[in-house]
Prior knowledge:
By secondary structure, the protein is mainly alpha-helical. The chain has helices at residues 3-12, 20-33, 38-47, 53-60, 71-84, 89-103.
Amino acid sequence: MDIEDVMNYLVDERAEDLSPLAFSEMFMSLSYYLLDGDKVLGVARKWLTLDDEYRAAISLGLEDVFPADSRAGLVELSASIRERFPALAEAAEVWVERWDKSYGARRDPA
């Protein structure tokens, strides 16, 4: 069983009405605890491409890492999220704003 299987199992078997942010916090911590913690973040990025609003909300709630590697990627992601999941549009746009606060409107960090 790999980490993606574990993450999917936990989400699929969650208690009713559990906030996606509860998983965001747990998965962010898990990424620090594991030797291959980057795999957790890779799964979260993959979830942003799926047609699953709950998993997308979890991924957007991971606070310590950008969900894309560039500002252009964040803008593209934000547009995709806004189109597929209007309720998550603001959460996706926040990542573009965070990028701009960290790096300005530059394409990639220097």
